[in-house]
Design goal:
The protein is mainly α. The protein is 77% helix and 0% strand. It is globular and about 40 Å long.
Length: 132
């Protein structure tokens, strides 16, 4: 199963790249709070919340990479397949997970924050499909 291991590794690295983009987005004021912080800081009180949320995000990214690796090859061959996959994951968060968890911050990031998160998910997907 080397494809699944590679998918997990690419997804984890992609999530790490997203973290870097989010630091810039937050420091420039575009993004108030990214999705992992919304989930863990609103729903899971913990002293080590920052470490827990980052590790969970990387793991989630790895699992997303495995799921991408399992897609049929004809779907992954399209040049926009990876970025579209990343954006689809973001839309799943926005339209399903955040409302289901009743996260208050997901609506307060504004258009700049939403665009920043959309962009980091597109980068994540591009990294998943970089050898296609």
């Amino acid at each position: 199963m080397p494809g699944l291991r590679q998918g997990f590794a690419r997804g984890t690295v992609g999530a790490m790249a997203m973290s870097g983009i989010r630091v810039v987005s937050m420091e420039t004021g575009l993004l108030e709070r990214p999705p992992p912080q919304q989930i863990f800081r609103e729903k899971v009180p913990a002293e080590q919340a920052r470490v827990v949320e980052e590790l969970a995000h990387w793991f989630y990214g790895g699992v997303g990479g495995v799921m991408f690796a399992l897609l049929p090859k004809f779907l992954k061959r399209a040049p926009a397949a990876g970025p579209a996959y990343g954006v689809a994951l973001w839309l799943g968060y926005e339209l399903v997970l955040a409302p289901a968890l009743d996260l208050s911050h997901h609506k307060r990031n504004g258009i700049g924050g939403q665009l920043a998160v959309l962009a980091d998910h597109a980068v994540y997907g591009a990294l998943l499909s970089s050898d296609r």
